[in-house]
């Protein structure tokens, strides 16, 4: 009893802490404002698909970055060679390398020696560029290490600039994170029109000062002015970099009252500016922003103190934005938008309502089923499941995670799968009771026997989920996090809380009493009988192979209905009152969008507009979305756009590659784990069967016309976890029976193992099905790509464990026997006995 009470105290403390962590998420603001921040900060955030807002994925223009780096190096080398009186042709500069062609080939070795001083890493170590002299030319190529460091530094600097620009713009709590090697993800809650943000973040704000060209200027450039047709001839050499600007603000000119930008230089910049103006009185100094001349005043006197003004017929808004850009600093390279997703606040609130409703209904159906099957013992399982839900939200709060719509789907699925552990435990206890064991002994044996199965099945599921997190993006990662937390908390509640309550109840029973857990009598009779499942092994394998081959054929023709994540392009939900499809189609055709696919969607006057993949430049500018909005508002002034998604070619290609890698690695992960835990033929049987399950699910996607998007990928990986979970339960019983009766014929042993786990298989499938049905029926298009394939996958995954995986294990096991190999790895006890015998 001491162990019971100590466990009760420890588990109670963990549960209390978990539930208290979940509490701030449901308390009203009037209450939380009176509580300490360390407590109220334990809250999870709502994803943009639930709260509404915009999501922009920006990519640093690496080509432009490398070109600028090479141009700077070319200028340094040119200056140094000029001082040495070594004459060369203008250096050829590209994003991949530089080429120096000397006018006197005899001096190539001298040039190479000088260039070496510029390509060394100033911090020591290897050279930043490699040199290759051939055909009287010197080629300078950046090393891989230098290119990677250049990209990394540019992304880190861009993150700081983007964060400062958005913070100063007054947006509420933007989320800015690095994504991949050259991407920046910006999430903006509450912003349903990101066009201004596009402009703000798409402006490099690279500011330079150039003197107007004169007779003494050796190298000149042409620069466009602010008005059309206005062109300036400037010295190519940069006289002062914009990085020396310390501060900039909107002020009004004392001369004419027009808005101007007042700037202040740092100490070094003030010194350089003073010297520049002292030596060039009477010359025009052009202020160039992103290759455009803003203004080019004539210097009348020496300017000291490091202060100046930029005027240029600005509006107040334009001057204020320019000041903001200068304060935040220039981006090291342009940022291009490669993905944009926008969800209106109304659509977000509808998603929350739908997610909560379908989740609650699914949970209630599962709880009712457990109560109906196991009676009062089912109540303990139901309490465990309810507690599990509270702990999931508690962990989400502690982690400060973001809850998305797929995340809600993950929680609902984890509820269905969490029941599996409780069903395994109850069925194991019932088996021990039927063997005549007293209540406490049966309880202990049931938990011990169920423990390894629960551990194996959950770890295999977590392998698939972890890969989904590694290769997924945005909301799909939210699904992976929610599902992983659900699996881990369910292991804790089923093994600790459920056992604690069951032990407490058993202690109230007479010592010699048997523990009676009800079930379904017809299933019990089946489980106690000898069903020859393996008799249908040839039919099962043949039918499965035919269906899988047919599904592969469907994959190629007519093919999957790819969503925007994989096909790229633009998808917009349009609410245009008092219109019809033909009006909308004509309006878009008039704007040049004849390729737009339009379908009625949801309520009246509600449409889904799709446009095929566009080039990276169109995606970066966002011009397509603005033109569509303009066309729609021309025919319906009250039109709104609840959802906008714009995906460029790079993103769709990356998603496709990540999906393939995730599924392949999931297969290898399962194979490796099951190989370690069982034997290679068990692992291979499970992996091959999962491959057959996946191909048939792909066929379902084609026949049902379900869109294949990132949510569908989440369904496939969740299905891998679920399917292998089911197979592990059967394999675990096979392993157990092999160790008890190693001489029994394999066919008979497999039939007994499948039959004895039949009740658990049926119950788990039913509960998972019940948890997902409300989402599939009422979840809408947002989760249809997850819920519908999962329902199909549950049926396929359950049946394949019996009719596909078991026969493959049998045939491969027969092959091992002919080679004189054992069916299982030696257990720890067997290894110890062998060691004892040797000693």
UniProtKB/TrEMBL annotation:
<dbReference type="Pfam" id="PF21760">
    <property type="entry name" value="SecD_1st"/>
</dbReference>
<protein>
    <recommendedName>
        <fullName>Multifunctional fusion protein</fullName>
    </recommendedName>
</protein>
<comment type="similarity">
    <text>Belongs to the SecD/SecF family. SecF subfamily.</text>
</comment>
<feature type="transmembrane region" description="Helical">
    <location>
        <begin position="538"/>
        <end position="556"/>
    </location>
</feature>
<feature type="transmembrane region" description="Helical">
    <location>
        <begin position="379"/>
        <end position="401"/>
    </location>
</feature>
<keyword id="KW-0811">Translocation</keyword>
<keyword id="KW-0813">Transport</keyword>
<dbReference type="Pfam" id="PF07549">
    <property type="entry name" value="Sec_GG"/>
</dbReference>
<dbReference type="GO" id="GO:0043952">
    <property type="term" value="P:protein transport by the Sec complex"/>
</dbReference>
<comment type="similarity">
    <text>Belongs to the SecD/SecF family. SecD subfamily.</text>
</comment>
<dbReference type="InterPro" id="IPR054384">
    <property type="entry name" value="SecDF_P1_head"/>
</dbReference>
<dbReference type="InterPro" id="IPR055344">
    <property type="entry name" value="SecD_SecF_C_bact"/>
</dbReference>
<feature type="domain" description="Protein translocase subunit SecDF P1">
    <location>
        <begin position="155"/>
        <end position="211"/>
    </location>
</feature>
<dbReference type="GO" id="GO:0065002">
    <property type="term" value="P:intracellular protein transmembrane transport"/>
</dbReference>
<dbReference type="GO" id="GO:0006605">
    <property type="term" value="P:protein targeting"/>
</dbReference>
<dbReference type="InterPro" id="IPR048631">
    <property type="entry name" value="SecD_1st"/>
</dbReference>
<dbReference type="InterPro" id="IPR005791">
    <property type="entry name" value="SecD"/>
</dbReference>
<dbReference type="Pfam" id="PF02355">
    <property type="entry name" value="SecD_SecF_C"/>
</dbReference>
<comment type="subunit">
    <text>Forms a complex with SecD. Part of the essential Sec protein translocation apparatus which comprises SecA, SecYEG and auxiliary proteins SecDF-YajC and YidC.</text>
</comment>
<dbReference type="InterPro" id="IPR048634">
    <property type="entry name" value="SecD_SecF_C"/>
</dbReference>
<feature type="transmembrane region" description="Helical">
    <location>
        <begin position="683"/>
        <end position="702"/>
    </location>
</feature>
<feature type="domain" description="SecDF P1 head subdomain">
    <location>
        <begin position="227"/>
        <end position="333"/>
    </location>
</feature>
<feature type="transmembrane region" description="Helical">
    <location>
        <begin position="762"/>
        <end position="784"/>
    </location>
</feature>
<feature type="domain" description="Protein export membrane protein SecD/SecF C-terminal">
    <location>
        <begin position="628"/>
        <end position="814"/>
    </location>
</feature>
<comment type="subunit">
    <text>Forms a complex with SecF. Part of the essential Sec protein translocation apparatus which comprises SecA, SecYEG and auxiliary proteins SecDF-YajC and YidC.</text>
</comment>
<dbReference type="InterPro" id="IPR005665">
    <property type="entry name" value="SecF_bac"/>
</dbReference>
<keyword id="KW-0997">Cell inner membrane</keyword>
<feature type="transmembrane region" description="Helical">
    <location>
        <begin position="478"/>
        <end position="502"/>
    </location>
</feature>
<dbReference type="Pfam" id="PF22599">
    <property type="entry name" value="SecDF_P1_head"/>
</dbReference>
<feature type="transmembrane region" description="Helical">
    <location>
        <begin position="407"/>
        <end position="429"/>
    </location>
</feature>
<feature type="transmembrane region" description="Helical">
    <location>
        <begin position="352"/>
        <end position="372"/>
    </location>
</feature>
<keyword id="KW-0472">Membrane</keyword>
<keyword id="KW-0812">Transmembrane</keyword>
<feature type="transmembrane region" description="Helical">
    <location>
        <begin position="790"/>
        <end position="812"/>
    </location>
</feature>
<keyword id="KW-1133">Transmembrane helix</keyword>
<keyword id="KW-1003">Cell membrane</keyword>
<feature type="domain" description="Protein export membrane protein SecD/SecF C-terminal">
    <location>
        <begin position="336"/>
        <end position="500"/>
    </location>
</feature>
<feature type="transmembrane region" description="Helical">
    <location>
        <begin position="450"/>
        <end position="472"/>
    </location>
</feature>
<dbReference type="InterPro" id="IPR022813">
    <property type="entry name" value="SecD/SecF_arch_bac"/>
</dbReference>
<feature type="transmembrane region" description="Helical">
    <location>
        <begin position="658"/>
        <end position="676"/>
    </location>
</feature>
<feature type="transmembrane region" description="Helical">
    <location>
        <begin position="708"/>
        <end position="725"/>
    </location>
</feature>
<dbReference type="GO" id="GO:0015450">
    <property type="term" value="F:protein-transporting ATPase activity"/>
</dbReference>
